[in-house]
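Subject: Interface between my chains keeps coming out wrong

I've been trying for a while to get a sensible model of this assembly. When I model each chain on its own everything looks fine, but I need the whole thing in one frame so I can look at the contacts. Pasting all components below, labels as-is. Any help appreciated, I'm running out of ideas.
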Amino acid sequence: MPTTAMLQAWLRTLWNIAPPLHSVPAADTPFLSPAGLHLPIGHPSDDRVLAAAAHAGAHLVYSRPGATMGALRPTSRALAGLLEDARIEWLAGRELPGLRRLWASLHTASPADGAGAEALMHRLARALADERYVDPHPWVEKGRRLMFLDNGQQVLALRQFEAVRQAASLLGNDLGQMRLPLNARTYRPPAGYRDDNQWLWAADEPPEARAPEDGGGAGADRAATVMAAPCAERIRHYPEWDRRIACHRPDWATVVERVAPSVAMVPPVPDHTDTLRRRLGDALKHRHGPARRRLRHQPDGDGLDLEALVRSWTGHAAGNEFDPRVHTRALPQRRPADVLLMVDTSASSADSPQPGAPSLLQTARDAARLCGEALAHAGHGCAIQAFCSDGRASVHVERVKDFGDPMDARCAARLAGLRSRWSTRLGAAIRHGTRALLEHTASRARHLVLITDGEPHDIDVFEPHYLAEDARQAVREARRSGVRVFCFSLQPAESPVLRRIFGARQHSGIVQARQLPLAVARLCL
Amino acid sequence: MDAWRIATEPYYAPSGDECTAFEAAYAERLPMLLKGPTGCGKTRFVEHMAWRLGKPLVTVACNEDLGAADLVGRWLIDGGGTRWQDGPLTAAARGGAICYLDELIEARPDTTVVIHPLTDTRRVLPIAPLNELLHAHPDFALVVSYNPDLHAQGLKPATLQRFCALRFDHPPAETEVAVVAHESGASPELASSLVALGVRTRRLRQHGLEDGASTRMLVRAASLIRRGIAPRAACRMAVVTPLTDDPELQQALSAAVDATF
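Reply #2:
Try treating it as a single job with all components included. I did that and got this:
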């Protein structure tokens, strides 16, 4: 079954084009729009989907949109579209003969369909697509002769669109003289895979705005509908460190944890991320250097284990059998780790570092998604949560992805559903994340990564250093309990507060997407 | 060292003046670094040049378990005690061969440091376990290759700065058609269809594929076709299936093969 990703890759191999693809219901006619190609991707026939994608792609490569209609009547206009379809298929088939075979196999019109205008046009379309198809009708034969200079259909006569338009006009007149009217409103393009060709004429008569059926594209964010999330909540209380009295206030902050709501439409990930993905993968792969184990007493290996050798020789001298296990061998040590990514969704994350750039929250979403994928790919466990706070009584944590969940469309939809609001109570989030990690695993290495745009603050705290000191204390406690804490900072410059909370080497800027691999490499998984 | 000599001329179609450049670098005994994607002809180029210069060629394919001891040599146990066994790098430096370290970056970091003293004016190889300072044979030269596309971090600057470098890429289409036709005996038409397919797969580099089809893959596809396998089946076997495990990319590449033939 062809999927959007498969079709995208296929079009890229065929013509090096990467139009956005949208899905239309299987029974609908495909169409092209400035937003991309609208194809019946769910159609049960694979060939039909492939043929539609290749045909629409060939339009992008060989057709020029915005032709003026001039004096063409609706019948001639449909014919011009039909001849243009044949022209681009011929041009594409010259380079890729397999496509011609694919298209020809879907044409089924024959003399048995009758000699109405639409049936004749479908028969002409078949004749032009398949040189072995024989049609007795003189009008079809005339169309064939107008299109090609030879019987084998090897030499194209209609090289430019202007010639296509003239031929269409001639054929349209013939249909008129045969008293065969075409109902342009009910006319459907032949063979099911061809688009409606509205795109060709866009300059004259803009087709009524047709919204993409499955979203994506520019308006996705506006049109996004937040689906009701199951509202199973879990409430936890955590202490908070008060720096003035140098001790904890017990059960001071209340964390409300729930599953993050998801949006129906997920905006596509930007194109450049493939390189980034690979670099992230590399960052995770190549950072296991120093953690090696040296195995002693091995039957073969890089070096000699002197102690074992001496023992073997003395044993041998004493009349025992020589023990050949006298080598040492280095083994790379790669312990799978569990990583919890916590995304700060406070109100300030709606800002952009500069006008026109994506919001900090969007950067954080992309980072979380890419890291999640890279970690899963490298064999590490990964969970994603988001946090924001509205005073100490309601610190909100939304679970985007739990350990063991696949990094799939559902997670992407939940990430896309995160909204910027309220404040940053970092300490409570760190304590909650630490607890989640400790409850999840006992034996694996545990990492807590905070993706945050700024310094802690909350509406019920007026003392400037109180929350930062609490966060620092929370980090210290987490590290003491065996959880490594790291911060991906969305601030453009190094922040002295984040540095104080996390330590100089435990935070890394990721405002630019390309900084992400370095930040991940610093995690030292 | 004679076992390492190349008897017959390995076929190589130059894309530019890389042969003269290499000869000049060898005359000065400058260490060479060959950069370029997988299967674009780096190894064949080195074989060709070794044959042309009449020098033995010691090739080491580096992998992530390859350590310094694997290159330099190690002590082995035999009946009466221990015996030193030269590694390939030591053997080449002693015997005056060209030593080619393929995909050096794959090797463990200690490996790259071992070659440092061989790549500057000292031209020595300290063999610590043997307590020997080996002065390289006058004919010895070092060539390494790596594929920068696959490795974000690259080689260390201290290593890179010791080398002169040649950049390789997939040859221009006409050269590649000639190579495929020559290596497999395929007709020019078939060879150009295959090369067009190769170019198409390379468009997916950066878009899911680590690398597109190499010239080597295309040659193999052509050879299979000459053995009577249908072109589409041969391309699936030699190109599509080895290139990726991703089912969607497999499907896309398969459909591209169908469209080509």
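Reply #3:
Confirming on my end. Chain A is about 40% helix and 15% strand.
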